[in-house]
Amino acid sequence: MSEREKILEIKHLKTYFPIKGTLFKGKAGLVKAVDDISFDVFKGETLGIVGESGSGKSTLGRTILRLTEPTDGEIIFEGNHLEHLGNRQLQKHRQHMQMVFQDPFASLNPRMRVGQLVGEPIAVQKILSKAERTRKIESLIEKVGLPKEALAKFPHEFSGGQRQRIGIARALSMNPKFIIADEPVSALDVSVQSQVLNLMLDLQEEFNLTYLFISHDLSVVKHISDRVGVMYLGRIVEIGPKHDIYNNPLHPYTQALLSAIPIVNFEKKREKIQLSGEPPSPSDPPTGCAFHTRCPKAFDRCKVERPELIHNESGQQVACHLYSQEDNKKILNAESKILQLTKQS
Ligand SMILES: Nc1ncnc2c1ncn2[C@@H]1O[C@H](COP(=O)(O)OP(=O)(O)OP(=O)(O)O)[C@@H](O)[C@H]1O
């Protein structure tokens, strides 16, 4: 099988925010929102990123586009390092990378009509004539399933789902290759959510798009993703093909997250795993594995040594000492024996 082509490579990315007015051992306190993250995104896929509120998902997305500056690490888009580029160079690459937000108009002028909002990014570029621009805007609004008449209206005249369609049209106006969608359907009713997700899937196929899809909602991520990465306190604790993550979660945190969502297949009942306590603060993360304070399977090593991501054969990676190379087999075997016993009882 030929190797899949990478569109984005993230290497040891860190985004730390100083906490104003705090000093710890003479240094300013830091929120480690993204703390040494590495992964690849392949052309044409959707990589879903899930995790609880505050795990660093949005900061990760914003840092990749350099809307937030990285503290350290590499961001390589189509072979080009973005992390140190000056503004002008960065703009050249950034037109291929767009972001879709939960509230697409929160930061935009509410007095602008939809036509202006969708066309603004292309107008700034000054490549198309006015007539070409109009044609493009009309075609985009139809691609997202809205009538041309929508262009003359204001955003507040639309429902949440329609506004998100307009947000997507705006993102598409630059002919991007890669879109980071940050909780794009979280504010919508469930029935509208699936319409917008299906639209995104159709557009992905038509325009050959790659998505990084950020959400706290595991069901939404399951619907749209090819692979899934699970974040906890600024780190990726597990990443792999969707099928593996949802059917055979390895990390105790992924297992707990998944145990909380209802499943349709009643034969495959899952026991709900209750996690104790709230996630710790990213300004004062626990030593060792950041999850050890809430992990039902933690042992001594977890308190002192931070686990790195290790691969299994199907490309699933997990950062957990339960699966460290030497004792990997022993523990996996022990787990499957326990599973068998639970089934029999
Ligand atoms: N500009 C900032 N300055 C200081 N701290 C920040 C900033 N942005 C985010 N943080 C902190 O970084 C951590 C990660 O936040 P982030 O918004 O990335 O998480 P998230 O997983 O997207 O959660 P949510 O879904 O609630 O937005 C949080 O503790 C947050 O308070």
TrEMBL record:
Superkingdom in the source lineage: Bacteria
Entry-linked Gene3D superfamilies:
P-loop containing nucleotide triphosphate hydrolases (3.40.50.300)
Query: Domain ABC transporter: where?
Result: 8-258
Q: Which GO terms describe its molecular function?
A: ATP binding; ATP hydrolysis activity
> What InterPro entries does the annotation carry?
AAA+_ATPase, ABC_transp_ATP-bind, ABC_transporter-like_ATP-bd, ABC_transporter-like_CS, Oligopep_ABC_C, P-loop_NTPase
SUPFAM superfamilies, alphabetized:
P-loop containing nucleoside triphosphate hydrolases
Q: Which Pfam families match?
A: ABC_tran, oligo_HPY
The alphabetized UniProt keywords are: ATP-binding, Nucleotide-binding, Transport
Set out the biological process GO terms recorded for this chain's protein.
peptide transport; transmembrane transport
Give the family from UniProt.
Answer: Belongs to the ABC transporter superfamily.
What NCBIfam families does the record point to? oligo_HPY, PRK11308.1
Name listed for the protein in its UniProt record:
Peptide ABC transporter substrate-binding protein
Q: Which organism is it from?
A: Viridibacillus arvi
Q: What are the leading ranks of the lineage?
A: Bacteria, Bacillati, Bacillota, Bacilli, Bacillales
